[in-house]
# Entry
Amino acid sequence: MEDIRMCPKHGFYRGESCKKCGYVGEVILDKERVEKLGRFISGLLRHYPDKYRLEMDENGWVDFGKLVRVVKRRFKWANQWLVKAIVYSDEKGRYEISNDKIRARYGHSVDVKLNDLPEAEEETLYYGTSEEEASRVMEVGIKPVNRRYVHLSTTLEKGEEVARLRTDEPIVLVIDAKEAKKDGIRFIKVNENIVLAEEIPPKYIKDFIRV
# Structure
């Protein structure tokens, strides 16, 4: 976890200096508070909006002002500016703010449709995993665990990166998204690295790579 700072030219960023221009700004949110606030926002937008009476639509959007009020009740030092700092400095593109609404773009356990996100154009996708899990999903397919959607990677490199978070002996499964689309499986593009799908039947797993 890194501190969040502000660059006058490029806005919020994480780390010592702005990656776009090298500017070293003052810390506006230290890493301990980044972790606390980030975890709470993630929970509100992905897992338990109802617990805090946040009305979420089918595409995952909640009212930004209402979310800020919930956050301020939990953390007296927080405000809408710091919530925006969490969102806009996040290099993985976890969150989105638009028209006084905020949402998580992926990682949900609550039931969301995400119909306003684009269809993925990639014909091949990748799923990083362990050897043990790879043997199982080759037989039964890839299904979400504690999530609404399966998370797939757009490149082999990203698939390997995900796999190495789980195991020292990573396996990357190669998904034939082109054929799956023909059979009606929907692939949702959430950012340049991540694509979502409800489930991947085993017949679309066309190869596995030891990396």
